[in-house]
Amino acid sequence: MDMRTFLIKGIATTAIMMSIVACAGKNLEQKKEGPDWIKRGTGAFLDKHQQAFYGIGAIKGIENRPLGRMAADNRARAEIAEGFERYSAVLMADYSLSSSATNFSQKGEVEQIEKSLRVLSLDTLSGIVIIDHWIDPSTGVFYTLARLDLKYFKDKIENAQDLNPNLRVFVREHADESFGKFSAKENERS
Fold this sequence. Notes:
Blueprint: H1 3-24, H2 36-40, E1 43-47, E2 50-59, H3 65-97, H4 107-124, E3 129-135, E4 142-149, H5 150-159, H6 165-189
Antiparallel strand pairs: 1-2, 2-4, 3-4
């Protein structure tokens, strides 16, 4: 699949997801205190025995509620994309340090693996799900919570046909460990 086709599919998927979310009519009950996820913030967390990336988007001052919701949703997705990019870098660094990665015959092979992981990461971002909304009654800020399961990424790795087989095995065996390292680094940042 060429990059143009990939981007078109990604844009179409995002548009469909935004339409579904806009029509979903999630409970926007205005509580006095924000939900726990507002306090926890963006990051990588273990939640109900599943590892996941979370992103929080926020917007203020948009009178049109559906437009505000869409903007906050997109910001939440962008938060996950930034975090997932950092996670991919941790995963790639771990892979480069592994014994199987030290036997590359050419520098080009490393570059090809990095490129494959970046493309796969972009494809994985289509798995971001908007799971909650909240409007702060005192400020009018519209918040969105988005989630991307690590399992979704691992499933994408398993089904990626053009992926280097060594990288596929490494991710299968080390994705959880790399997630733990990444999560610890993210917690230090906040």
